[in-house]
Task: structure prediction
Amino acid sequence: MTHQTNHSADGIATPPELGPTGRPSREFPEPVTLTSHGPARIIALCNQKGGVGKTTTTINLGATLAEYGRRVLAIDFDPQGALSAGLGVPTHDVPTIYDLLLSRNLDPADVIQKTSVEGLDVIPANIDLSAAEVHLVTEVAREQILASVLRRVSADYDVILIDCQPSLGLLTVNALTASHGVVIPLECEYFALRGVALLIETIDKVRDRLNPAIRLDGILATMYDARTLHSREVLERVVDAFGDEVLETVISRTVKFPDASVAGTPITEFAPEHQASKAYRQLARELVFRGAVA
Result:
């Protein structure tokens, strides 16, 4: 990869400004307008550690991809239902992803809900999903139930994002088996770093045994605080360990994220000019640039 060298007014070459990952900062280009839609590329947002930004990233990545003209379906695959709440959609007394997993006669169209963002739909979840592993454990090809559900809606979308629960259990294996790619949100904190190798080992096992097509689309540094030495050191260690698999976009810590969650809307709508909104637009452009999204 070649990097552009900057020149000062007196003609002296100056090195390019480096971003948080130690690579030259750059703006990824705007995605081209799509002339047709589908079939969807399915991406699981996965990390067995909780509180690392999976749901926040699913919501805001989905919203920014929709801004760029992509048709996006977000799957709430966590019994806590945080994705559904964060998008302001009801989760009780409505059919959910749990019902789709257990009933082959249910039409996914009857479960999909619109959000406030044009082009972004969601399949909600609630606490019922916590019982799914018990019900699925005796099913034939139990790891492929979600994949069979998503095949029925794939043609209607460009991207399907799965917000996984913080575990490496049967639901997460279902998500990985259904997906073409994985994005790992990683909090810039030491203990969050320790579990990444185990998660990548799980992805490798799924690739070997269930889904040969799956690939790692990138590791996304989240909750980054450039003011702290700890955040900077953790990010440096992640880049040293995983190199170009670490996405150049970095999501910084901000109180605007919980504020947007309370409002039930993506931060790109809640505070469209905020630096966090700009970061998620940059993430969407980077994933398109990398070929993870059409």
Remarks:
- Residues 142 and 212 are 17 Å apart (CA to CA).
- The mean pLDDT is 90.
- The longest helix spans residues 275-290.
